[in-house]
Amino acid sequence: MGRISGPLHDVAGDAGHHDHPPRMGFFTDTSVCIGCKACEVACKEWNAIPEDGLTFTGMSYDNTQGLSADTWRHVAFIEQRRPVEPPEDYAGVDVLGMAADGAAADFRWLMASDVCKHCTHAACLDVCPTGALFRTEFGTVVVQEDVCNGCGYCVPACPYGVIDQRKDDGRAWKCTMCYDRIGDGLEPACAKACPTESIQFGPLDELRERAAARVERLHADGVPEARLYGADPDDGVGGDGAFFLLLDEPEVYGLPPAPVVTTRDLPSMWRHAGAAALTLIGGVTAAYLAGRKR
Predict the structure, then answer these.
(1) Cα 182 from chain centre
(2) Nearest partner of 186 among 74, 72, 42, 48, judged by Cα
(3) Are 30 and 162 in a shared domain?
(4) Which of 145, 144, 163 has its CA nearest to residue 153?
(5) Contact by Cβ (8 Å): 172, 76
(6) Phi-psi domain of 258 (left: phi exceeds 0; alpha: psi -120 through 50; beta: other)
(7) 294 and 251, same structural domain?
């Protein structure tokens, strides 16, 4: 096992890959997502993912509800109602008419295609006892379903709640970033199908530069709430291999505001457990020797 916390420049090298290609990733720009769900369909078709119910919640137009073993790309539909600034002078303004027309509030859709984050420090990988989860030469995290024993340790380990077990066989499943496609020089199916280039695929360093420039452009265009999520190598997971441009707080999109790799404190926990065990052994030994002397 390599490092499990803190900034890590070369995740593939840390995993034992030598002379590997650059780390690849996703940049999802939610500001241009139109909610078409082409990414969901392409992901299912390419990866032969089972149908997952298509159940409407009654709360939005979303019919897949979230990421799961059978939904590796999920397009969230978030309807927001925000107050409109009132006019400075109400003279001649039909206030009752404005209210009847719904003009007292501004509605907007926030649409975002969520996916596995392929974390720099992936707790799911750290806790897997069989090696079913592994780090590829592209820096992504993949599940080998034929090696997975269905223990489920990876599910609570993920700080994003991404990885899930399939009910019919108990094995864990999640996005592979189309490992089979990128190994042949192709882009993942979701990015290929996206009509607005909301989902962008490429070398992670290049994507981060492109994303930073996009945020600056949006700020200059009067969208001060634009921000990046998961792009910072100094965050609690060492930065994500799949990061996002958001137009509101992460919680609005169902994302944790400050994710931390759940295995970060394992070394200190083992040290403390070892010290406690030695102390216990020492106490038992001392008591035994004292008894022998009596």
Answers:
(1) 19
(2) 42
(3) yes
(4) 163
(5) no
(6) beta
(7) no
